[in-house]
Specification:
5-stranded parallel sheet; 5 strands; 10 helices; alpha/beta
Length: 200
């Protein structure tokens, strides 16, 4: 019944190409409510407020035709820590508010989900893990991650990964570690089991 124990608030993280998006879908199939921070950022980038702020800071080339070009923004900020910090300062308070509003809505839902799971790649790097009841890290073999990333056409994987904690460190800090080296059924079973350990 809504209003009893609060819904477990869970943060899903992992390295590039470890399978976070697939894990998020598996958790939803297992009865969790899920939210991707990347999806929230994509939505924010469609707003006039964020577009105007980006153009003021970086110029018209980041929003050709009046719409934000995510690749152009990434190219501008990726190798410049000051610009990246500015962008994160613009986006993350808004992402955080969106997550908080979403969580409050779930507390009023009936029936309520088994858990509220938010996927954010840089969980531990942001220092925000204390906000959550539990953390799940999805990890995979390094060669498999490289193969998956290459298949998706991700450029500069090593450079991007260098900004993140290692898989080993994320696994050490997380409450639950789920390997994604096998089949989707294996992943589903592992995550369904993980949810079962955190229900009130």
């Amino acid at each position: 019944m809504a209003g009893d124990a609060r819904i477990p608030f869970v943060w899903l993280t992992g390295g590039i190409a470890a399978g976070k998006s697939e894990a998020l879908r598996a958790l939803e199939r297992a009865g969790a409510a899920t939210l991707s921070s990347d999806d929230v950022v994509r939505e924010l980038l469609t707003t006039g407020e964020i577009r105007d702020a980006l153009v003021d800071r970086f110029g018209d080339e980041v929003a050709p035709g009046g719409e934000v070009d995510r690749s152009a923004v990434a190219e501008v900020v990726f190798s410049d820590p000051d610009k990246r910090d500015w962008l994160e300062g613009l986006l993350w308070p808004r992402v955080g508010q969106r997550i908080a509003d979403w969580r409050e809505e779930l507390e009023r839902a009936d029936p309520r989900p088994r858990a509220a799971v938010v996927e954010v790649p840089l969980l531990f790097e942001s220092g925000m893990e204390a906000v959550f009841d539990r953390t799940i890290a999805v990890v995979a073999d390094e060669s498999l991650r490289s193969e998956r990333a290459g298949d998706r056409g991700h450029a500069r994987v090593d450079e991007r990964t260098s900004r993140q904690l290692s898989q080993e460190e994320k696994a050490h800090r997380a409450d639950i570690v789920v390997r994604n080296d096998g089949t989707l059924d294996d992943l589903q079973r592992a995550l369904s089991s993980a949810l079962g350990t955190m229900e009130p």
